[in-house]
Design a protein that fits this description.
Number of helices: 2
Largest sheet: 5 strands, mixed
Shape: elongated
Strand content: over 45%
Helix content: under 10%
Low-confidence stretches: 16-26
Mean pLDDT: 84
Strand order of the largest sheet: 2-9-8-4-5
Number of strands: 21
Distance between the termini: 107 Å
């Protein structure tokens, strides 16, 4: 019985070791730096507050800020706010201002002693830019038929922070089909399997771009008329015949037109076996 009690006590003491380690070896927190996850755009002003805890034994006279690449903040960037808070204000003028900002406690000679806290600043040109070159095409030459859209998001320092979604509607926005591709950036392709009515008179495309860090979104809506964006397949047949008349030699060419009364333009070019330069090249509207 005595031996059993002995081993019980030993086991209990061993179970306390992790707790003692966590208590005695965890880094001493001297204060906090807020906001904790800062993000900012070029030419905006960054504000960081370094606040030491009452039991830290520190005050603002014993604090310093260090910018990325271990550059000490100049005095004109700093403002004392009470006894325990030092405010850093800096205009973010370049991408190189992104990085780690550290608040240090210093000794009487001004040398860093302990890190109070740190944050990592994210810098971006613009939270969500206006998209450009937003174009779509209805490709009837592919099998199955495809409705393809492309756009240009613009220049970002952190394009991976963007969440891009696009919807295709063939009924004036009443219903929509999400992009079949799971992760998109600047292109989406629907087929007639995704939307059987992609050949409708007009298609409305709604593009939503969200910056997940800055929590801002922009929506771009555009309508495309099928007759203006269709890429039609070549004619299923072309027939040509020639005949000799007294006044001239004539050639008759016939080809199938696109069903549905779609207005098209065909280019007919005639060449002679004796001439490398086309004899006739003419656009015919149908």
């Amino acid at each position: 019985m005595h031996r059993l009690s002995h081993w019980f006590v030993v086991g209990f003491l061993f179970s306390l070791i992790p707790r003692f380690q966590a208590f005695f070896f965890q880094p001493l927190r001297l204060g906090e730096l807020t906001p904790k996850n800062p993000s900012i755009l070029i030419n905006q002003t960054l504000e960081l507050n370094c606040t030491v805890f009452p039991d830290s034994g520190l005050n603002t006279s014993l604090l310093k800020f260090y910018l990325p690449r271990h550059i000490e903040a100049s005095s004109d960037m700093l403002t004392v706010v009470g006894d325990r808070t030092l405010l850093l204000k800096k205009t973010i003028s370049k991408i190189e201002d992104e990085g780690q900002y550290i608040c240090w406690s210093v000794n009487k000679t001004g040398s860093p002693v302990d890190m109070v806290n740190s944050v990592t600043l994210i810098v971006e040109y613009e939270d969500v830019r206006n998209v450009t070159d937003f174009q779509c095409i209805l490709d009837n030459t592919s099998n199955p038929k495809e409705f393809r859209c492309n756009w240009n998001l613009g220049k970002y320092l952190h394009p991976l922070y963007l969440d891009v979604n696009i919807i295709l509607s063939v009924d004036n926005g009443q219903n929509g089909v999400n992009c079949p591709q799971k992760k998109i950036s600047e292109q989406c392709i629907w087929t007639e399997h995704d939307e059987p009515n992609i050949n409708s008179m007009s298609n409305i495309v709604i593009l939503n771009v969200t910056n997940l860090v800055f929590k801002t979104s922009k929506i771009f809506r555009k309508e495309f008329w099928t007759q203006n964006i269709s890429k039609h397949a070549p004619p299923s047949f072309i027939n040509a015949s020639s005949s000799s008349l007294e006044q001239c030699g004539c050639a008759t060419i016939t080809w199938v037109t696109i069903p549905g009364g779609v207005k098209t333009t065909s280019t007919v070019t005639l060449k002679s076996q004796w001439n490398t330069v086309p004899l006739v090249s003419r656009n015919l509207d149908q």
